[in-house]
Design goal:
Length: 496
């Protein structure tokens, strides 16, 4: 059996960096080199301050960096020396041309394939690690076949990642399953066995699943679509709970105890974010449309539509409670990453809540314990968020390094990320320095255990999927509608 002794990973991002760090940690006899064209990112991987925050990752990197784990910008040398090459580059949603807004942009995948075939010789296993649309491997193989050399034998596998940010190291060390897809030929099975042997250093054989390439690619998309679907499903129920007096947490517990359903991913919130869910569901929608399956495409599009609706609905609620106007009002927004225990802000619901409030002229004071100020400003300055007026971000947004400073003289406090530290804040101190009536909008249900205490302090509390207060400041009279239509994104420019 072919034995893998040297691994090259192209892409030092959220997938490639942690994945290969854990492989190096668990397989000390294998030399792992992670390469990237981004020099500053590689420099960060070689420093004491890693480019991404992930619990436990720094300890893993420091345990093997410089011994059998290396980070480099010398891509060609790493490819030449490797027995196996992981492709872990970004596959963003296209922002132009055919499939705009839905299809995956595979330009980085294609560039990797061309570079690999150009500099390689001998036998080499090339493995898709990035999330790619079904049959992307076929495109890579066509590039390999069109540029083949007599001395070159490239075998292509699909090995999608299933790790969740915030628990990535644990997910890699104790995976539910490892999925490897390849050709059903003798050469393809040989390559599959070689990659299986790497994972078998620490993963039980029963958890390593082998399939054909297409099943492996589709399984990744389907898995993320199913998880996103569960979140949108419980969020739809949260709206019903608010209208009827039910508590979505109690409903989720009741249905989650049904073993056929299970309790995971039934946490109502302001919507899912991150690099994968929206991108992969939209990719699935586009795939169905291309394959002339409009009913299937429409079904999965509803998962995205419900996520957007939940964000708009929450923003409308903030505006309604603040007497139907937030223009010029200071609002403290706590949490900007898309979930706790990560600094990743990609597709974070905080971005969209901020957009809707900025559209109404609110003054936002934003705090997050792990997201850099530069990243927050960058995210809010994107054309689709800033309404092609990035200058309004500097006028309306202040990023603070202290949650108490963010809340001082604020009309409302909005929790957008479920950081544990938000449960431990001194809310009496916060209340004293806020304008009255002081509102808390809990978009993540992290303060459920404090509702009575917060009400005794004097806060007006609004949360997802539950009516908390009975003697609160009333909503806008029915005759006056909210300034943001729940059914469609706001388009109004900010008044500053």
């Amino acid at each position: 059996m072919f034995q893998i002794k040297r691994i090259c990973c192209i892409g030092a991002g959220y997938v490639g960096g942690p994945t290969c760090s854990v492989i190096a940690h668990m397989c000390p006899e294998i030399t792992v080199t992670v390469v990237d064209v981004n020099e500053s990112r590689i420099k960060a991987w070689n420093s004491d301050t890693l480019p991404i925050y992930e619990p436990g990752l720094k300890d893993v990197v420091e345990s093997c960096r410089g011994r059998n784990l290396f980070f480099s910008t010398d891509i060609d040398s790493a490819i030449k020396d490797a027995d196996l090459v992981f492709i872990s580059v970004n596959t963003p949603t296209k922002t132009y041309g055919m499939g705009k807004g839905r299809a995956a942009d595979l330009k980085f995948i294609e560039a990797c394939a061309r570079r690999i075939v150009e500099v390689s010789d001998g036998y080499k296993i090339v493995t898709e690690k990035s999330t790619v649309p079904v049959r992307a491997a076929e495109s890579i193989r066509r590039i390999f076949d069109a540029n083949t050399k007599p001395s070159l034998n490239l075998q292509l596998l699909s090995n999608p990642e299933f790790l969740a940010e915030g628990t990535a190291v644990r997910d890699l060390k104790e995976p539910d399953r490892v999925l490897i897809g390849g050709d059903e030929t003798a050469e393809g099975q040989k390559a599959i066995r070689a990659l299986c042997a790497v994972y078998e250093h620490w993963v039980p054989k029963a958890r390593i699943i082998t399939t054909n390439t297409w099943s492996s690619e589709l399984s990744k998309l389907a898995a993320n679509a199913f998880l996103a679907q569960r979140i949108s499903s419980i969020n739809s129920i949260s709206a019903l709970c608010e209208a009827t007096g039910a508590d979505v947490e109690e409903v989720a517990k009741a249905i989650g105890m049904d073993q056929r359903i299970g309790s995971k991913f039934l946490k109502a919130s302001i919507g899912f974010g991150g690099s994968c869910f929206q991108k992969d569901v939209l990719n699935l929608v586009y795939l169905c449309e291309v394959l002339n399956l409009p009913e299937v495409a429409s079904y999965w599009q509803q998962v995205i539509d419900m996520n957007e609706y939940q964000r708009r609905r929450f923003a409308c609620r903030i505006i309604d409670c603040l007497f139907n106007t937030v223009t010029g009002k200071k609002i403290a927004l706590l949490g900007f990453s898309f979930k706790k225990d990560t600094g990743d802000t990609r597709e974070s619901s905080s971005i969209y809540i901020s957009k809707y409030l900025m559209d109404e002229g609110a003054k936002l004071f934003i705090y997050d314990p792990k997201v850099l100020k530069e990243q927050i400003i960058h995210d809010l300055s994107q054309p689709n968020i800033s309404e092609d007026n990035p200058g309004r971000v500097s006028e309306l947004v202040t990023v603070t390094s202290d949650p108490y400073e963010a809340c001082q003289t604020a009309h409302a406090l909005v929790i957008c990320t479920e950081w544990d530290m938000f449960k431990e804040l001194d809310y009496e101190k916060i209340y004293k320095k806020m304008l009255k009536p002081a509102f808390i909008f809990d978009g993540r249900r992290v303060l459920d255990h404090l509702h009575s205490h917060l009400q005794n302090i004097g806060f007006q509390i609004e949360t997802i999927g539950k009516k908390v207060t009975t003697t609160r400041i009333p909503y806008t009279p029915a005759a006056v509608g909210p300034r943001i239509a729940v059914s469609e994104p706001p388009t109004k420019k900010a008044k500053v």
